[in-house]
Amino acid sequence: MGIIDHAKDIAELIKKYNDVELYQKIIDLRDEIFELRENNLNLKGKIKALKKEKKINEKIVFEKPYYWIKDGEKKDGPYCQKCFDDNKKLIRLQERKNGHWYCLVCKNGVIDSSCKAINRVHNGGSWMSS
Ligand SMILES: [Zn+2]
Question: Which of 46, 78, 90, 106 could crosslink 66 through cysteines, CB 3.0-4.6 Å?
């Protein structure tokens, strides 16, 4: 039985005594329990989001002009710098052509001539020249 059910049971018991003031106090108490439970759920959600953010912050690396997620030997990305700095969103950049990347969300374009070499190593040689 949950705390709300307990409060309901107590309210029902008190009703029998026809004490309006006491009954109202129990109803107020029940409402406060509702509110506390809601706040608790919100806090749990915030803690979960903070843990996720912390995990990302430990792995994210800025290599001009974009971000990468580094996990040991693994490297994932690149990710949009603007989107991450603005609202902590990891948006994968799309490659348009050699060294030209763009973000589907903020439409920001990035040019980097060295990304060709990084990409070739990262994808095990799957990069194709035009
Ligand atoms: Zn973006």
Answer: 78
What tens digit of pLDDT does each residue of 52-63 get? 999 999 999 999
Cα 24 to ligand 1 centre (Å) = 53
Which residues have a beta carbon within 5 Å of ligand 1, which is an ion?
80, 82-83, 91, 103, 105-106, 108
Q: For residues 13 and 6, what is the distance between their CA atoms, to the nearest angstrom?
A: 11
Show the domain range for 36. 3-54
Judgement on whether residues 111 and 75 belong to the same structural domain of the protein: yes
Q: pLDDT tens for residues 3-39?
A: 888 888 888 888 888 889 999 998 999 999 999 999 9
Query: Would the CA dihedral through 80, 81, 86, 89 be positive or negative?
Result: positive
pTM, two decimal places: 0.59
